[in-house]
Write a structure and sequence with these properties.
Blueprint lengths: L2 E4 L5 H12 L7 E4 L22 E7 L9 H8 L4 E5 L16 H11 L4 E6 L6 H14 L3 E6 L3 H10 L4 E6 L5 H10 L12 H18 L2 E4 L6 H5 L9
Length: 249
């Protein structure tokens, strides 16, 4: 079982601080994901030089709308930074349309990258909340057929939904997203922005989120799945101090 930890590159200093924390978790974490967020100056792939890649699998995210396939820019980045793993997502158009973006379909991008780099680990995303289960599973299948070998999910908050998706993701390297929500403001954001339907018993506090994470880790280990932590603006020591990472080794 693999465990991935997402570090958002808000700044180099903030990245280094979270990276230092990850290293205190010993060997529990073996993947580091870095999303690419346009409002920040640091691009995801630029962090390749700040991670011990003999210890962690480094997976920078790329947004397909930021690249034209025929330009070859994405290919150049993969080669320049000697990347062995990437995660391709569609990406949302920039607010205010102040940045250039392209109508590049992520499935087409996956196919092009696979053709250029046959041995590259290409991951894609899936979102259990944005559309119906049947449509999302079909979309995931299209990405797999194009060349994606693994998938990282948006956060889950209902174990019943995880069980359903787990059945449909059999044979694919799948990472179940876990992102603790500890304030009502964050809960409201996920409901409005990301269309999350929370279970009735959900509570935006550390106790509920820690208990849920431990349940997901245990069930994922039993089902041959992996987990993907996306900690956003939380007390890392308080949260991970109660997460039972070592029990799955």
């Amino acid at each position: 079982m693999n465990i991935s930890f997402e570090i958002v590159p808000r700044s180099i200093a903030a990245f280094d601080e979270q990276y230092a924390f990850v290293q205190t978790l010993d060997e529990s974490i073996n993947f580091i994901n870095v999303p690419d967020i346009q409002r920040f100056e640091t691009r995801s792939w630029e962090l390749a030089t700040r991670i011990d890649r003999s210890k962690y699998r480094f997976i920078p995210h790329f947004r397909s709308i930021d690249f034209k396939i025929e330009s070859g820019e994405l290919f150049r980045i993969i080669e320049q930074y000697q990347l062995d793993s990437i995660l391709l997502v569609s990406g949302d158009p920039p607010e205010g349309l102040k940045r250039t973006f392209y109508a590049t379909d992520v499935v087409d991008m996956i196919r092009a990258v696979r053709q250029r780099f046959p041995s590259l680990n290409i991951y894609a995303g899936f979102d259990p909340h944005r559309q119906g289960l049947q449509d999302e599973c079909y979309y995931t299948l299209r990405k797999a057929e194009a060349g994606a070998t693994g998938f990282f999910s948006q956060p889950f908050y209902d174990s019943r939904l995880i069980e359903i998706y787990a059945e449909h993701m059999q044979g694919l390297e799948t990472y179940i997203g876990i992102s603790p929500i500890t304030t009502m403001a964050s809960k409201n954001y996920w409901e409005v922005k990301n269309k999350v339907k929370f279970p009735v018993a959900f509570r935006p506090d550390y106790d509920w989120n820690v208990e849920f994470a431990n349940q997901v880790i245990a069930s994922a280990a039993a089902c041959g799945l992996n987990v993907y932590f996306m900690p956003i603006r939380i007390d890392l020591k308080k949260y991970f101090g109660a997460i039972r990472l070592g029990e799955i080794r």
